[in-house]
Amino acid sequence: MELLKEKIKQEGIAVNEHILKVDSFINHQIEPGLMQEIGKNIADHFRDRGITKIAAIESSGIAPALMTSVALDVPLIILKKQPSKILNQDLYQTVVTSFTKETNYELTLSKKYISAEDHVLIVDDFLANGEAATAALRLLRMSHATIAGLAVLIEKSFQPGHDKLVSQGVEVYALAQITEMAENFILFKE
Ligand code: 5GP
User: Fold this and answer.
1) pLDDT of 101
2) Which of 65, 109, 120, 175 has CA 20 to 30 A from 40's CA?
3) What residues of the chain score a pLDDT lower than 70?
4) In ligand 1, which atom is closest to the CA atom of 57?
5) Which 3-state string (H, E, C) describes 123-149?
6) Gap from CA of 20 to ligand 1 centroid (Å)
7) Do 133 and 150 touch, CB atoms closer than 8 A?
8) Tens digits of residue pLDDT in 83-123
9) Which CATH number fits domain 38-177: 3.40.710.10, 3.30.70.20, 3.40.50.2020, 3.30.565.10?
């Protein structure tokens, strides 16, 4: 998606060869017009696939996932991050290893909002090592829902997430793919 790539070129900050900061338009401040176009783009790609719900990983996935859910007119469910490991009969729960914070956290979803009849599209901001997306898949599959795919705004293609997801049979749709990064340097896939 050219609009997103241009924005990353203008305002994205490559901190080092691994971390890209997009705080001014995705992660801290959100640019609504861009986010709306992102939602339409993802919705157009996955339209007519029988999607019944969009799933977002709290919290940076919520904005693009909401825009996608508006464009497809289906509900958005939020996979919630919780520090507690107390077992709860009403929730599906799984553990995730965080890329940015280098800690573990629990991802949870109430059993009320998902069923085996659901066909779910997962939306997130970044795909890096694929840990968050793999945990989202695990969680959704506990309910026997089926997965339409994973849409991410930015895939860092030099990290293993893409291959990890594809090898599990998941379609990955990335709006911008970065093949190489260094301090103040970002190279996009053509
Ligand atoms: P993964 O589980 O694929 O390694 O990482 C996914 C999560 O880590 C994303 O949801 C995102 O919040 C965060 N993340 C991974 N790489 C980056 C990055 O380069 N910049 C930012 N801002 N977040 C990232």
Assistant:
1) 63
2) 109
3) 84-85, 99-101
4) 10
5) EEEEECCCHHHHHHHHHHHHCCCEEEE
6) 9
7) yes
8) 766 778 899 999 887 766 677 889 999 999 999 999 999 99
9) 3.40.50.2020
